[in-house]
User: Which sequence fits this backbone?
């Protein structure tokens, strides 16, 4: 079943239905009205759900910020019950918390869950990038390289190649690391990232 992003698209589809199915005009009208009403209900329902999720995220996030003992547990429950962007943001925050206390296994668990929930390419790339870094901390170098393949989009190239270079260097592949850092530089990243990549290349040359 097609999913329509605007009411205009839906109206166009209903008109096409009428043109192609003149004999079923009456049924088409009923279906068109029902679909339009359903679409409006779905929009309202989705908006309400996201508003509630936003409020719940802010509450759980504040508990973490205030370093309350219940904060981590509340945020974990939030991630489990919200398979949307807010759930992904919460998982990212939890992963950061666990990484800070060097609980990399739990950090990986949160990021793996976020990986399955992220629907937008940029958000998924961010999750994959952080997951690869956590996998490096656990010496899961092959897993990290596979995860980095999920980092998409030109804007992520330099960061992706930077982390890839780190993985390859950790595996003893200095040539591969040099190629990765060079690709990162070729993507014309920010000045700060350019400086970092050049420094890593210089260290490999020395």
Assistant:
């Amino acid at each position: 079943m097609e999913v329509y992003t605007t009411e205009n698209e839906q109206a166009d589809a209903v008109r096409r239905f009428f043109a192609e199915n003149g004999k079923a005009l009456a049924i088409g009208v009923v279906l068109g009205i029902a679909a339009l009403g359903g679409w409006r209900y779905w929009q309202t329902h989705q908006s309400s759900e996201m508003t509630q999720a936003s409020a719940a995220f802010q509450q759980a996030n504040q508990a973490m910020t205030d370093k309350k003992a219940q904060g981590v547990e509340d945020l974990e429950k939030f991630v489990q019950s919200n398979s949307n962007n807010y759930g992904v943001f919460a998982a990212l925050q939890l992963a950061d918390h666990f990484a800070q206390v060097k609980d990399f296994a739990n950090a990986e668990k949160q990021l793996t869950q976020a990986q399955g929930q992220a629907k937008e390419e940029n958000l998924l790339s961010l999750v994959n990038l952080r997951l690869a870094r956590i996998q490096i901390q656990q010496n899961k170098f092959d897993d990290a390289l596979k995860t980095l393949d999920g980092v998409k989009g030109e804007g992520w190239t330099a960061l992706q190649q930077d982390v890839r270079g780190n993985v390859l260097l950790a595996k003893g592949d200095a040539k591969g690391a040099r190629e990765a850092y060079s690709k990162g530089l070729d993507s014309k990243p920010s000045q700060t990232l350019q400086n970092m990549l050049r420094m890593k290349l210089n260290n490999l040359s020395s």
Notes: Residues 7-152 form a domain with the Serine Threonine Protein Phosphatase 5, Tetratricopeptide repeat fold (CATH 1.25.40.10). The chain has a mean pLDDT of 76.
